[in-house]
Amino acid sequence: MVAIVDKETCTGCANCVDVCPVDAIEMVEEIAVVSDACIDCGQCVDECPVDAIEMS
Fold first, then answer.
1. Is residue 2 within 8 Å of residue 38, measured between CB atoms?
2. In which domain, by residue range, is 7 found?
3. Domains: count for the chain
4. How far is residue 3's CA from residue 50's CA, in Å, rounded to a whole number?
5. Dihedral (C-alpha) 50, 1, 31, 17: value to the nearest 10 degrees?
6. pLDDT value at residue 1
7. Number of other residues whose CB lies within 10 A of the CB of residue 56
8. pTM of structure
9. pLDDT tens string 20-50
10. CATH of the domain at 19
11. CA 19 to each of CA 12, 16, 30, 53: distance values in angstroms, whole numbers, following the listed order
12. ∠ at Cα 24 (21, 25), nearest 5°?
């Protein structure tokens, strides 16, 4: 599984960046982007206030 960000829903709050334990998320043009370093922990999913991230 890997974290997938819905670019249309993401508000650019960066909460997911702050909670990622392996720094696998960065903001690109105010949208969260998940890298291959993702360990599928799901912390970003739980932290996203607009439900823009899901595990797939």
1. yes
2. 3-55
3. 1
4. 15
5. 80
6. 80
7. 7
8. 0.92
9. 999 999 999 999 999 999 999 999 999 999 9
10. 3.30.70.20
11. 14, 5, 17, 13
12. 105
